[in-house]
Amino acid sequence: MSKTDPTPSLDNVHDTLANIVRLVERGSVAHWPNPVLRELALALLRKLLKLTDHAQRSMRDAELAEVQAVYGLVAHKASELLDLPEAAVYRAVVSMCENVESPTLTDGLPPLDPGVANRLSRFLVRIVVVYRGHEGDRDTPQRTVRLVHGYSPGDLRKTEISQNVGYERLPDDVRVDLIKGIEQVEFQLFPRRA
Fold first, then answer.
1. Which residues, at least 6 apart from 184, have a Cβ–Cβ distance to it below 8 Å?
2. Please, are residues 131 and 156 in contact by the beta-carbon 8 Å criterion?
3. Which of 10, 33, 14 is nearest to 22 (CA)?
4. pLDDT for 163-179, tens place per residue?
5. Each residue of 77-124: pLDDT tens digit?
6. Which is it for the CA torsion 187, 189, 191, 192, positive or negative?
7. How does DSSP classify residue 149?
8. Which stretch of DSSP H or E encloses residue 124?
9. pTM
10. Sheet harboring 184-190: ordered strands across?
């Protein structure tokens, strides 16, 4: 947590709790007015630490589910446009958008098909996902996946896939930005930025 950002992250809270637990465990019982009070404080701190662990795992799971959903939308649309098997296209989308292979995104899928990956990388020019907070009558955030695709500059087209998504499904940083009032949060997935 910095002085310019007064909002602590869950990681900051977790790390602070872990440090406090270590300090209390190492500290002398003589510093406490009552040994029972020390044990109660430690029990509470350990429960809070477990709660932050659980919250961190849940947020990572929610973020992973959102990444899978976005890649799934891209794969579904690209497989329709290119008449290719959706599972093979999904595998190629993951390869194109991720810096490092992520087994959690590709478990159970066939290996990357170089032909599908090559065809997809020549066809897709840009993949962007945009999150918008509530607007007008819409009280839930909206996710829009934008694909720019085609085989030549004169043939380029833009496809947009928009869906309403609950705040609980958004990645943590996106949710925080939208709640703070930022109108939209945008990520370029492909080509990857250095």
1. 130, 131, 132, 133
2. no
3. 14
4. 999 888 888 889 889 98
5. 999 999 999 999 999 999 999 877 777 888 888 899 999 999 999 999
6. positive
7. E
8. strand 124-132
9. 0.71
10. 157-164, 142-149, 124-132, 184-190
